[in-house]
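Notes on consecutive records. When two proteins share a document, each keeps its own sequence and its own token line. Never mix them. Below: protein one.
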Amino acid sequence: MFAAEPPVVPRDALPAGEMDPELAYRIVRDELMLDGNARLNLATFVTTWMEPQADRLMADCFDKNMIDKDEYPRTAALEERCVRMLAELWHAPEPGDAPGCSTTGSSEACMLAGLALKRRWQQARRAAGLPADRPNLVMGSNVQVCWEKFAAYWDVEARLVPMEGDVYHLTPDRAVERCDENTIGVVAVLGSTYDGSYEPVADICTALDALRDRDGLDIPVHVDGASGAMIAPFCDPDLRWDFRLPRVASVNTSGHKYGLVYPGVGWVVWRDRDGLPEDLVFRVNYLGGDMPTFALNFSRPGAQVAAQYYTFLRLGFDGYRRVQGYCREVARGLADRIAALGPFELITHGDQLPVFACTLRPEATGYSVFDVAAHLRERGWLVPAYTFPENREDIQALRFVVRNGMTHDLADLLAGDLDRSLHELRRQATPLRGADSASFDHGARRPHRR
């Protein structure tokens, strides 16, 4: 088989002729062997392991188009069940009536939630005879880049609240300071990608309640729970962040992060039907039947939705609590091990998301976090090194994401490799790599100006 491979394989142009399928498979597979090991990737929040039964189920559904609900009614039914399960998990007042849908990920889910906020604000302004041409959205500078994309794509001013001192996410007082009559909503992040911390959603809602009572501004909150919305219900059941807070209008999550499904699925759910303006729902009949759709994408794979339903069915509440609790336990243990090595100072401890960040102490002058990340990469570990956004760009950090599949034993191996890397790095007189060498970027930019 290997001897049958042609001397030159076209990489950037369509080959002139056909190729044996097994040979084509091997050529592609050989190149993919040069990728990193997904299980050792502590940069990504995305699920890198599922059970063999889920693999088989997804293979059974690869040919199903999620949008074609008339042709694949049972796949459509699984999507609806998942929405109801999430609405109940997040304490919607009427889970069976809460609108929502699957998406290709949290980025699309955030776009939909943002569009709903903008349209509701526009409708209210026009009904009151007021201008509706300068919407803004308030959020911390630690938001995922999809929110800046939303602002750019749909002409909304992104009022990014910069980090300040040792506060690395949005706070109630600083959120309210930036709200006015043109604010379509406030985004609260349940699990920052920078350090894994929760933003104080309940306190933000309380501050906005006071703003309404004082100035008459009734501003809704969207919770970006890309990661935390599938952690908090199981590990922090008493934490009030979801639809138990009347000001929370919508919630999104990534099924492919701590929802424990392979990449390609997110979810957005609204508190009730008032949260999703009817004119954002489109109806098509050219696939057979009358089908409402309000996702940005049209054709989408059904396999990830089937896998999400399988995982909900397979684990149930107790199973998710066990898996997520174990991840947090591993994260906290690994954080303690890394802190004990000496040169690292923890920013977070893995006790909210099973994610923590650390920086180097001032006395570690001979190497940078970027040097540490490069040494770990040589041993197969992918640990991101990056700088924080505007106002705290002086912070250079490493972040460790613990997902299902990261065991105590693997964490011990990582800590051991990190210790060995430090022995080598201490021989350096000065850092060899700076922020310009980082391969990881949160996408944070300066706030948009108008």
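Protein two starts on the next line and is unrelated to protein one.
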Amino acid sequence: MLKMPEPDADVLARRKSIVADLRDIVPGEGVVDATSEMRAFETDALTAYRQMPLVVVLPETVEQVSRVLRYCHKNGIRVVPRGSGTSLSGGALPLADAVLLVMSRFNRVLDIDYANRAVVVQPGVTNLGITHAVQDEGFYYAPDPSSQIACSIGGNIAENSGGVHSLKYGLTTNNVLGLEVVLINGDKVRLGGKHLDSEGYDLLALMTGSEGLLGVVTEVTVRILQKPETARAALIGFPTSETAGQCVADIIAAGIIPGGMEMMDRPAIHAAEDFVHADYPLDVEALLIVELDGPEAEVDFLLAEVEALALRNGATTIRVSKSEEERATFWAGRKAAFPSVGRISPDYLCMDGTIPRKELPRVLAGMRELSEIHGLRVANVFHAGDGNLHPLILYDANKPGELAAAEAFGADILRLCVKVGGVLTGEHGVGVEKRELMPEMFNEIDLDQQMRVKCAFDEKHLLNPGKVFPQLRRCAELGRMHIHAGAMPFPDIPRF
């Protein structure tokens, strides 16, 4: 049973006055307090968990965000920031005593600067919206999560999202140049900008991937890239997932860095093909999509190298895109893998762990064993090039015990990732989903050090509490002394 911070009874008792105060700050339709209207916000994309918020606030200006946060800070009210609600880790799960601060109205492109190859946007702009704004001039924004048509750039910042082309072009953190952030006390700060480097601590990197625990992003400056001269994709089928995994390792070991390299196993292949009709081979156990981009001569040479490595690993089918339309079709199946799996199972948990590439065969074999142990099917879709796994655990929430079994299965997969030298998350974040698994990767000293960063920004723990850290602590508790045999350390030092 998922445990969240106990609701503050005093805040719940003051709900009517809190709503009225917030309406003074965000007038019109910017405050939603009717139960029926708040129902749309009770969960994010991790739909196994639901909770109605205290109230929903949809600000339209930075000043409104600042005033809402300052009000909540002064009155001890918790705040959960939310973008488009596509988080797969429960990062935007509301709390019963918290204001749900929804940033979807911050949806404007503010500045396009081709000379500096930078775009300034509000956090509610979708990931794909940035590319749409610059594609007529031959530019694009590189990180491309599967949910890019819907996910917001502010949410991408919160979770440090990746995508199929992150292998070569990096995650969100590698493509963000600057942020405007409002802190819980209402202060507005600017981090970075269109310049490449800033002096002092790298707070820009700290904020990227902070899961809404440190501040609320109100403006984002991102790097845009020029579209490559040529991009071609190869569809490669293998008789086993292990041989496909070995081919991935061999491609990287050969010094080839594809623009994207994705892998799907048999259940995911069939689900995607039934949904998109991308003409995927159905007689293989694993499918790689390997895309090379750059000058045409280089792409041709590298494709030949990839084909040779694939054949050496027992590939049974190889098809290279002959047109831009065919390349897009190859990717359409992969991009639709998550919704397509939803057609073959009433429910599924989409996990997210990252491992060293060389461990792919071992981990894939381990997942098959875990599938038998837990009695649930799993479909694998993942960013093979950087070892970012997305196993989809299939279950039926209407069958007693299956959700718990799915959660246990997912936890065992993540433990396996850590065991082989990997990490708990690559791009979905910790949220509530992996919160209790943090001690598998970090000891208490590690977690306390991370908590001290949280305390420096939010000493009252009002921003997105109950997420990331396995237990809710007060900042004062981090300074607690260790008492041994009834004696304090250094008893001769005066204490006040």
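For the record: The first strand starts at residue 31 and ends at 32.
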